[in-house]
Every structure is written in C-alpha cells, then in structure tokens.
Amino acid sequence: EQDVSEYRKSLAIRVSGFDVPKPIKLFEDCGFSPALMNAIKKQGYEKPTTIQCQALPIILSGRDIIGIAKTGSGKTAAFVLPMIVHIMDQPELKKEEGPIGVICAPTRELAHQIYLEAKKFSKNDGIRVAAVYGGMSKLDQLKELKTGCEIVVATPGRLIDMLKMKAVTMTRATYLVLDEADRMFDLGFEPQIRSIVGQIRPDRQTLLFSATMPYKVERLAREILGDPIRVTVGEVGM
Ligand code: ADP
Ligand code: MG
Q1: Alpha-carbon distance 219 to 188, whole Å?
Q2: Distance from the CA of 184 to the center of ligand 2, in angstroms?
Q3: Which of 40, 58, 99, 125 is deepest in the core (most CB within 10 A)?
Q4: Shortest-distance atom of ligand 1 to CA 45
Q5: Ligand 1 within 6 A of CB of 202
Q6: Which keywords annotate this record (predicted)?
Q7: Global model pTM greater than 0.90
Q8: What angle do CA 131, 226, 200 make, to 5 degrees?
Q9: Distance (Å, whole) CA 128 – CA 118
Q10: Residue 74 Cα, ligand 1 centroid: separation in angstroms?
Q11: Which residue, by CA, sits nearest to atom 1 of ligand 1?
C-alpha cells in the first residue's frame, strides 16, 4: 500500500473513493486480448500515459470514474480500450440492437477524433462504430445506425435528435462516456446530457472526463455516477 501511494505520488496522480485499484505500469498488465494488444502496438503506443496507468484498472474493474487530466494526456484511449473489453464481454453480442458503448463529446471535431480512434482500436474485433454528429448528413447517419453498431460517438444535440426519431435504441447501452464534460457545460449541453443519461439504464457504467472540474460539473457527476473513483493527474483548475 505504501509502495502504491509512493508510485502514485511519483506520477502526480491523486485518487479519492473507496477500494481504488492500484495503477498499472504496462498495457500487458491489463489482460487485453491479443487483438487489442495488436491494435495498441499498431498505434505506436508503447506504454500507458499517466492517466491511463490509473484509469485503465479502475474502469476495467467496472467502477465509475471521474477522470481529470489536461488536454493531450491520453484520455481517449483510457475510455476506449476498456469499452472494447466491455463490449467483447457481452454474451450473445449480435442478438440485440443498439449501441453498448455511448460516447458524448462537445463538438463535432472532438467527436470525429474519438470516432477515428475508436475505429482503429475496435476493427480487429469486428466492433462497429457509428458517428452521430453534425457535418454528416442525417440520412447517412440513419443508414449507419440501421445497419447496426456497438459504439456510438455523438454530440449531445444530434444524439437527442436521433433518439427522438427512434433511429437509435439505448436498451443495450451499458457503458456511457461523457468526454470534455466542462466544455459540454460551457456550450450549454447540461439539459441534453441529463436527457441522454435518463434514457440509459441505471445499471450502466458511467465515465466522466474533463480537463477542469468546476462545481456544476462535479455536482452533475455526483448525481449520475455511482460510487465513483476520482482521479486527478497534475494540477487542475476549477
Ligand atoms: P486527451 O483526450 O487527454 O486530450 P488524447 O486522447 O487526444 O488526449 O491523446 C493525445 C495524443 O496522445 C493522441 O495523439 C494520442 O494518439 C496519443 N496517445 C494516447 N495514449 C498514448 C500512449 N499510451 N502512448 C503514446 N501516445 C499516446
Ligand atoms: Mg480528449
């Protein structure tokens, strides 16, 4: 335990919450499948970034997380890699419809980056990723959703549109990521986020990532996450 806290300190990781899994050192410590390990190596990722060292074991253990680390710290892979494990763990994967993993991001540019990253990591496993954000025709998105997907990457407004049109069903969704939560608040998406969260089953795993943690974001996190572990890397503003 002493070693663990020394190791965290050396990485400038702070954690709160009960029973926090200890940080890992290598991707090999995560128990990833050979397909996923190959995808990681193909990206040129040799070892996990600091946030990944602590967030990966927490998320892989099934816990909810509030992850706070500055831009460029590798938060995307921290939530995408366990999402793929979560999806591959589902029994009878192809029998039901609708996404298992749902990722919300504030802008179409950010959503698109996540979409590309999720595709790279999931293609070895045959997982389908659908894009639900502006800049693409709604008709194309409707078609993509109709052919089926396991992951949806969305901006909140467009996802609400698709839910209203019943183009996507959330019955299978058990892994929800709110990325760049602070920016989603700044852009006024709090009502949309609440609506989306309200349409996803309460036994989901919920992950919230942000570069900063203003009080209103913390308050929402406390409402929609269950017994979360909070992980902060480095110095973070409010
Ligand atoms: P954030 O979401 O925290 O701003 P990103 O997930 O966008 O950060 O990652 C920033 C950059 O770091 C990306 O180019 C990504 O491919 C790269 N990256 C992420 N994890 C690793 C890793 N373990 N090793 C090397 N590069 C990584
Ligand atoms: Mg990011």
Answers
A1: 15
A2: 12
A3: 99
A4: 24
A5: no
A6: ATP-binding, Helicase, Hydrolase, Nucleotide-binding
A7: yes
A8: 35
A9: 9
A10: 3
A11: 72
> Over its length of 238 residues, how does the chain's per-residue pLDDT go in tens digits?
778 999 999 999 999 999 999 999 999 999 999 999 999 999 999 999 999 999 999 999 999 999 999 999 999 999 999 999 999 999 876 667 899 999 999 999 999 999 999 999 999 999 999 999 988 888 888 888 888 999 999 999 999 999 999 999 999 999 999 999 999 999 999 999 999 999 999 999 999 999 999 999 999 999 999 999 999 998 766 5
Among 25, 26, 29, 43, the mutation site with the greatest number of ligand 1 atoms within 8 A of its Cβ is 43
- Global ipTM: 0.99
Kindly state if the Cβ of 234 falls inside 6 Å of ligand 1.
Answer: no
> Residue 71 C-alpha to ligand 2 middle, in angstroms?
6
**75 CA distance to ligand 2 middle (Å):** 5
Q: Which residues of 68-90 are buried (b: 16+ CB within 10 A; e: fewer)?
A: bbeeebbbbbbbbbbbbbbbbee
Ligand 1 site, residue 75, Cβ cutoff 6 A: yes
